[in-house]
C-alpha cells in the first residue's frame, strides 16, 4: 500500500500525472493507494486560503472514484508507536532544498566577541541589531565619528556597506552635518566603487572617507569598551562603530556537513546539489556559486533553477542548464540610486559571466538619471518582493 501526501492527492485530482517519475507512475497504477485523515484536513485548508478551487470533500470524492484512494485504517497512535521502533533521525525525503543563510565569524578579529555586538553592532542580521545601530546614530553628537568596517569577500550583499555609508551620510547631513564617516575596508576595492565615490562627492562633499586594506583599512583588533578599532596604521576611535564581521554558512549547514573547510557550501552549479551530501540542494548566500554574488536576487534566481532541476531529477530526466541573472540597486540617497546587472551561465562545471551581458549605471550623467534609477529601484524591490512572498 502506498500512502499519499497532500500535494500528491492534489496532482491526481488535477490530472497532472506527468509530475511523477516513471517509477512513481508505475506505483500509482499497481499499488493500493491510501491517505491519512490529516490529508483531508489539509485539502480543506488549501481550499479556505484559495490555493485550490474546490473543497477538500470534493477533491477526495474525485480521487476515490478515479484512483481508488481510500482512508488508511491504521490509527494514528499505532503509526506513531511503530515509528518509534525505526532508527529515524530526520524526516525522510527524496530531495530537499535548503537556504541556510549566514552566520558571523568572531574568530577573525582579535578581542571581538559576540557579546560586543551590543556596543559595536554589525546590523547584518535581524531587526534588533539594526535598531541598535540607529539608536547610536541618533545619540551621537554633531561632529561625531562613524566607523564602518566591511569585511573581505565573500559576504552577504557586497555593495551593502557602501549603500549603508551613503544613507547614514544622508541622515547626518540633515541632522548632524559636522560629523564624519570613515570606512575602514579589508578589501582593496569594492563593487560600483566609481559610482559610489562620485555620488559621495556630489551629495556629501568630504563627509565620507574610504581606506582600503593596504592603506590602513584592515581591522586587526576591536575594543568595545573603549569604542576603538586597531589597524596596522594605529587606533581609530568612533562614536559609532559598525563592524561587519567575516561570514560563513549558517550553523545548520556547518553542523550538517554541507560546508567545506572554507565555511561555505560547495554545490554542483547545474542543480545546486551539494557535492558533499547528495540529495540536498543548497541555494542562497550559503552556496559557493562561483562569480555570482551573494544577493537576494541571486538567491531568487537560484531557487527557480534549482526547482526546475529537482523536478527533472525526480522524473529521472537530465536537468537543463539555464542562465542565471543578478540585478542590484543601491541607494545613495532616497532619490538617488545606481545599479548593476549581469547574466551567468555554465561553462563546463563553472558559473561564468556571459560576455556582453548586463550593465551598470553610466558614470557621468545628469542628476535626473539618478532620480529615475531610484524610481526603478523601488519598482524592482516591489517586484521581487511580490515574486517571493506574493
Automatic annotation (TrEMBL):
Stored Pfam families: FCSD-flav_bind, FCSD_central
Molecular-function annotations in GO: flavin adenine dinucleotide binding; oxidoreductase activity
InterPro entries: FAD/NAD-bd_sf, FAD/NAD-linked_Rdtase_dimer_sf, FCSD_central, FlavoCytC_S_DH_flav-bd, FlavoCytC_S_DH_flav-bd_sf, PIN-like_dom_sf, SQRD
Lineage top rank: taxon: Bacteria
Domain Flavocytochrome c sulphide dehydrogenase flavin-binding: 324-389
All copies of domain Sulfide dehydrogenase [flavocytochrome c] flavoprotein chain central, residue ranges: 131-245
PANTHER family listed in its UniProt record: FAD-DEPENDENT PYRIDINE NUCLEOTIDE-DISULPHIDE OXIDOREDUCTASE, PTHR43755
Name used for this protein in its record: Cytochrome C
Amino acid at each position: 500500500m502506498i500512502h499519499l501526501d497532500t500535494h500528491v492527492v492534489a496532482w491526481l485530482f488535477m490530472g497532472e500525472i506527468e509530475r511523477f517519475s516513471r517509477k512513481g507512475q508505475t506505483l500509482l497504477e499497481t499499488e493500493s493507494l491510501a491517505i491519512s485523515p490529516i490529508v483531508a484536513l489539509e485539502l480543506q485548508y488549501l481550499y479556505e486560503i484559495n490555493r485550490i478551487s474546490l473543497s477538500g470533500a470534493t477533491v477526495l470524492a474525485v480521487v476515490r472514484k478515479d484512483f481508488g484512494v481510500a482512508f488508511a485504517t491504521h490509527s494514528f497512535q499505532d503509526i506513531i508507536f511503530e515509528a518509534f521502533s525505526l532508527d529515524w533521525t530526520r524526516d525522510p525525503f527524496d530531495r530537499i532544498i535548503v537556504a541556510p543563510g549566514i552566520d558571523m565569524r568572531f574568530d577573525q578579529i582579535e578581542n571581538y566577541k559576540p557579546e560586543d555586538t551590543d556596543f559595536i553592532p554589525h546590523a547584518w542580521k535581524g531587526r534588533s541589531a539594526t535598531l541598535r545601530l540607529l539608536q547610536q546614530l541618533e545619540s551621537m553628537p554633531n561632529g561625531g565619528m562613524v566607523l564602518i568596517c566591511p569585511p573581505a569577500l565573500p559576504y552577504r550583499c557586497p555593495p551593502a556597506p557602501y549603500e549603508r555609508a551613503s544613507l547614514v551620510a544622508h541622515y547626518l547631513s540633515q541632522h548632524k552635518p559636522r560629523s564624519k564617516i570613515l570606512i575602514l575596508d579589508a578589501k582593496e576595492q569594492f563593487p560600483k566603487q566609481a559610482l559610489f565615490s562620485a555620488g559621495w562627492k556630489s551629495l556629501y562633499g568630504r563627509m565620507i572617507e574610504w581606506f582600503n586594506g593596504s592603506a590602513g583599512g584592515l581591522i586587526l583588533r576591536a575594543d568595545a569598551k573603549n569604542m576603538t578599532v586597531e589597524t596596522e596604521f594605529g587606533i581609530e576611535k568612533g562614536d559609532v562603530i559598525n563592524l561587519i564581521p567575516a561570514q560563513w554558512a549558517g550553523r545548520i549547514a556547518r553542523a550538517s556537513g554541507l560546508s567545506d573547510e572554507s565555511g561555505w557550501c560547495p554545490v554542483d552549479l547545474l542543480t545546486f546539489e551539494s557535492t558533499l551530501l547528495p540529495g540536498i540542494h543548497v541555494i542562497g548566500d550559503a552556496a559557493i556559486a562561483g562569480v555570482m554574488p551573494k544577493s537576494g536576487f541571486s538567491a531568487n534566481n537560484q531557487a527557480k533553477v534549482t526547482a526546475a532541476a529537482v523536478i527533472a531529477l525526480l522524473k529521472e530526466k537530465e536537468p537543463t542548464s539555464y542562465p542565471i541573472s543578478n540585478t542590484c540597486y543601491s541607494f545613495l540617497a532616497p532619490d538617488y540610486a545606481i545599479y548593476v546587472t549581469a547574466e551567468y551561465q555554465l561553462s563546463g562545471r563553472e558559473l561564468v559571466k556571459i560576455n556582453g551581458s548586463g550593465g551598470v549605471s553610466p558614470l557621468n550623467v545628469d542628476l535626473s538619471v539618478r532620480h529615475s534609477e531610484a524610481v526603478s529601484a523601488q519598482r524592482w524591490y516591489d517586484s521581487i518582493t511580490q515574486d517571493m512572498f506574493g
